[in-house]
Amino acid sequence: MPEKMGNNINHPPVIDGQNYPVWSILIDIELSACGLRDVCRSELSPTTDFTVINNWNQLNVEAVQLMLSRLHPEIIVTVVNSNTVKNAKLLWNKIHEKFAYQTVTNRGRTWVRWECLRFNGNIEEYVKECSKILFDIAEIGIVMPPDIMAYSLLGKISRDSNAYDHVIVSMVLTMNSSINPQLVLEKL
């Protein structure tokens, strides 16, 4: 890990999945102080100057090491792969993609997308959009009972309670299982 920062500056906390907003600000400050921010935000401009290339590669390694040192082991397995371990920009983007998405505002925005989703008469589009939003809900960690999500999904299709009851009963009886959103989407 780079030793360019003085001991009097607090290092970013280890990101644990809940503290991304603070971690992001502090790691950005540390990367900047160490002269590593650029390798996390941009690509090396095409050049044949080996000194520039070697310097960029060294900074890239240092930036990856710094970021990895501030990740909880459980987080490492979710963001590090054969590409991100070698490329500071890819690692930064992967961390940002995973955790910026989970902020309170993003969770709220995703839930509102679900709540506002309405059936427009095209079942294929509806299934596709439901699948996308359900994936996003799972990704950001919103946990709702599967049967409630399935009922909500069905309620968006029809306000007719008789049709609603018929679909639910037939699914549960034919599948001999509890109702869940994936089951409903498969049956639509």
DSSP strand (E) fraction?
A: under 5%
Number of DSSP-assigned strands: 0
Largest sheet: none
- Give the rounded overall mean pLDDT: 82
The gross shape turns out to be elongated
- SS content category: mainly alpha
| Total domains | 2
Secondary structure: helix percent: 55-70%
Q: What is the radius of gyration computed over CA atoms, rounded to a whole number of angstroms?
A: 23 Å
First-last Cα distance: 53 Å
| SSE run | HHHHHHHHHH
Which residues form runs of ≥5 with pLDDT under 50? 1-8
How many helices?
A: 10
Pfam families: Retrotran_gag_2
Report on the structure:
- By secondary structure, this protein is mainly α.
- The chain folds into two domains: 20-101, no CATH class; 104-187.
- Helices cover 65% and strands 0% of the residues.
- It is built from ten helices and no strands.
- Helix 8 packs parallel to helix 10.
- It is elongated, with a radius of gyration of 23 Å.
- The model is unreliable at 1-8 (pLDDT under 50).
List the helices and strands and how they pair.
Layout: H1 20-33, H2 37-41, H3 50-69, H4 73-79, H5 88-99, H6 104-116, H7 123-140, H8 146-157, H9 161-175, H10 181-187
Pfam family, one: Retrotran_gag_2
Provide a concise account of the structure shown:
The chain is mostly helical and 188 residues long.
Features:
mainly alpha, 188 residues, 10 helices, single chain
